[in-house]
Amino acid sequence: MAEHLGLHTVGDLLHHYPRRYAERGELTRLNDLPLDEHVTVVAQVSDARVHKFNAGRGQRLEVTLTDGSGRLQLVFFGRSIYHHQKELLPGRRGMFAGKVGTFRNVRQLSHPAYEMLGKDSGADAVEAWAQQLIPLYPACAQMESWKISNAVDVVLASLEATGWEAVTDPLPPALQEGRGLLPLPEALRKVHRPRTKADIEDARARLKWDEAFVLQVALARRRHADAQLPAVARKPVAGGLLDAFDARLPFTLTEGQRQVSAEIFDDLATEHPMHRLLQGEVGSGKTLVALRAMLAVVDAGGQAAMLAPTEVLAQQHHRSVTEMMGDLAEGGMLGGSDQGTKVVLLTGSMGTAARRQALLDLVTGEAGIVIGTHALIEDKVQFHDLGLVVVDEQHRFGVEQRDALRSKGKQPPHLLVMTATPIPRTVAMTVFGDLETSVLAQLPAGRSPIASHVVPAKDKPHFLARAWERVREEVEAGHQAYVVCPRIGDEEEGANGRKKSPESPEDEAEKRPPLAVLEVAEQLAKGPLAGLRVEVLHGRMQPDAKDDVMRRFAAGEVDVLVATTVIEVGVNVPNATAMVIMDADRFGVSQLHQLRGRVGRGSAAGLCLLVSEMPEASPARARLGAVASTLDGFELSRIDLEQRREGDVLGQAQSGVRSSLRMLAVIDDEEIIAAAREEAAAVVAADPELDHLPALRTALDALLDEEREEFLDKG
């Protein structure tokens, strides 16, 4: 259980809730089973036959299950088939567990594990089974649902004997009674061994509250602690750098940009640190809003640092900020503006002399603005007076980096986190619960619409040929294009000569590694895009080489850029109008949305083609269809969440820790989360250290022990 399901203690097992419940006599809908997933079904055997193959040398047992409407085939090979044939008699019911595959378009489980129901032939046993809701647990190939169920039986029996003393209840009694929630022992009993559907509902209502409340208390304590910190108020100064910058803008700010800027300036003027999340669609002008905040801080005598997740991005931000500021970015230099300041870049791969100069400019205060990568966090980097930290693409940063950068100020600096991944309100309340949120929903005037289409390369190869023709047409019209691949292509060969690639159900289904930049670029340059200027960009290139390719692409000297997701965020080439994403099913929904945001940044319309070899009925194709059907990032982030487990939302996928949310669904349970947030704020305001609520403290320590609060900041 520990190895395959992450269940280490009895408490973990008690909180490993059934995924669903099969009703007595009710059979699972076999037609709805998802391909490539591990399932447990309750079904009836309709027939079982042994077939010979290989001229009689081999034999297999084929068993057909039915639920009255759909069918599912089980197949067994080898010597054990006669044993299975004796068990799997037509008319009997059982639970069957295995991975759903297809053979000749029929869904099948190969060598499934199974448990026949009602075979303890006593009439009592059959009757007992017939009365029950059968809990089906999240299981895996090594640990079937019924084995987990047997283990839960042992634990429940033991707790009944001791009067449940070992279970501490995190909810304050007043809250539990006030909200009419079940006591915890009763909720656990009912969720694992319900007698009725009402039992399940009551238990879930209570257990969701536990999760929402403990999480919101953790966040409320964090906000409370942050509010106690001192900070230097940075009030904008009239007639300074910000006014000079605004006067030169060739366009007017959108209403949204003005409003969000006002929220930020209000925060900056207070004497405790701002903690604000700025979310906006790709291209909504977040960088401009962040730059204005940085200029206001420089006007008030402080310095501002912008932290980017990659060197390519840091260089891009540096380039776009210096371009936007013009001579205002050359303070103290010949030809620079009198009101200007110095804007420096700091990355790990800079030459020694340039790096030394940048560090000097920071410590003397000569540089008001610094843009860099994690290199900014190193011990050697000292600031004259750090007043504001802007973090780009928060989900790339953990709490340690935020804290390390904060410690660079004489007092904690103000913090602005930018993300282009739209986050539904409840997720923002859950994941970024310690940050106030601002949203930029409007796109600036002059942005063009993007048409998106799925290209089914396997079903309709001529669609792919047409995709390359479209790329040629865009280039002939004077535009440029991106081709994105999941892999670079010079990785080590695996032991069996196959390239190593992340194993996912789709990978196994296709038995081929994801397409790679180097191979695709070569095929395109020799084939469909022959004669065009095709270049590659990926994370393993030398920083200078990367920057050189990006500069030439931006200057229009490259027609087609074949790249990995290094272009996912921040790359801004208005002349690039087309993007072809190869093996698009290997990317997440929000990642596809981010990538797509790289085209249509100028006056010409954008085109995004999602190429996939997945079959039409697969979940992967449904996901791509959703991306093609809407440009609304908030709508997509909902779809994304509904398709992924919420655990991934809490950054658990990166940290390797199981999600702390087992019952709460971040999207559906908006009301519970909002109510829990209010209750938590009240509890923490009255008793910040939770001295009077020891059981809540225990639950909090257990939650936060998983990677020490880190998932609250993973985003």
Structure commentary:
The chain has 715 residues and is α/β, with parallel strands linked by helices. It is 40% helix and 19% strand. Helix 8 crosses helix 26 (694-705), helix 10 (255-268) runs parallel beside helix 11 and helix 15 (425-431) runs parallel beside helix 25 (670-686). The radius of gyration is 29 Å and the shape is flat. The protein starts with a helix and ends with a helix. Mean pLDDT is 81; it is low at 492-510, 645-659 and 710-715.
How much helicity do the residues have? 25-40%
Query: For the residues shown, what is the average pLDDT?
Result: 81
Helix/strand-derived category reads alpha/beta
How far apart lie the N and C ends?
A: 28 Å
Helical stretch count? Answer: 27
User: What is the alpha-carbon Rg in Å?
Assistant: 29 Å
What does the main sheet amount to?
7 strands, parallel
Gross morphology: flat
Placed side by side, the strands forming the largest sheet appear as 11-12-10-13-14-9-15
Beta-strand share of residues: 15-25%
Chart the SSEs and their pairings.
Elements: H1 2-5, H2 10-14, E1 20-23, E2 38-53, E3 58-66, E4 71-77, H3 81-87, E5 93-103, E6 106-110, E7 113-116, H4 123-131, E8 133-136, H5 145-162, H6 173-178, H7 184-192, H8 197-228, H9 241-248, H10 255-268, E9 275-280, H11 286-299, E10 303-307, H12 311-325, E11 342-346, H13 352-364, E12 367-372, E13 386-392, H14 399-406, E14 414-419, H15 425-431, E15 436-440, E16 450-456, H16 461-476, E17 480-484, H17 505-510, H18 517-526, E18 534-537, H19 543-554, E19 560-563, E20 576-581, H20 589-596, E21 606-612, H21 619-629, H22 633-643, H23 646-649, H24 652-655, H25 670-686, H26 694-705, H27 711-714
Parallel strand pairs: 4-6, 9-14, 9-15, 10-12, 10-13, 11-12, 13-14, 16-21, 17-19, 17-20, 18-19, 20-21
Antiparallel strand pairs: 1-8, 2-3, 2-5, 3-4, 5-6, 5-7
Helix pairs in contact: 7-8, 8-25, 8-26, 9-11, 10-11, 15-25
